[in-house]
Amino acid sequence: MRVPRVAQEAVKALEAGLRAATASAGRERRTKSASTATATADQGAEGPNERALFISVKPQYANAILDGTKTVELRRTRPNLPDGSLVILYSSTPTRAVVGWAHLTGVREGTPIEIWDEYGAAAAIDELDYDAYFDGTDQAFALQLDSVVSAIQPIPLAVIRDIGIQPPQSWRYVPADVTTQIQDFCTRLRSRG
């Protein structure tokens, strides 16, 4: 099967970016103190930074994250990942592609009013849309993002599915070794090409 050159180049860009992001997270992980490592090890059987966060974001918000005007992603449920974890940004319909990645620098919890007061400007959302999103809940979560990297070329949904990742409605965990899966996928593409 011949894979279009655009898809091959997109996979190469994702591979390089995820490899760099995962390496950066690994360096941060190695520099953490022993007490922090012990505290985060209690978060689950997988331990800290052994998984990444794959989030679906509407295209206008994905673009705002990539251009730096949005440094906080809002959610109604809290992901359980330590600071420094990799966050893969999937731009939903009509884009339907991975457009970049970032590092999670913190998750703040509060009421929707508290989160709006503290992070409204950083969330790049107007107040009416914010209120509609948090309608019916008394909890809000602000995912603080840093070290944002744009993919050289968006990685299309078909390529992501070929790697074995199904984009979620909101967010999901994926193994941090997704870089390895992407490298294997690229190797298969190169051997076919």
Automatic annotation (TrEMBL):
Residues 55-149 form the ASCH domain. SMART domains: ASCH (SM01022). Residues 21-46 are annotated as: Disordered. SUPFAM superfamilies: PUA domain-like. It holds the Pfam family ASCH. InterPro entries: ASCH_domain, PUA-like_sf. This is ASCH domain-containing protein. The lineage of its organism: Bacteria, Bacillati, Actinomycetota, Actinomycetes, Propionibacteriales.
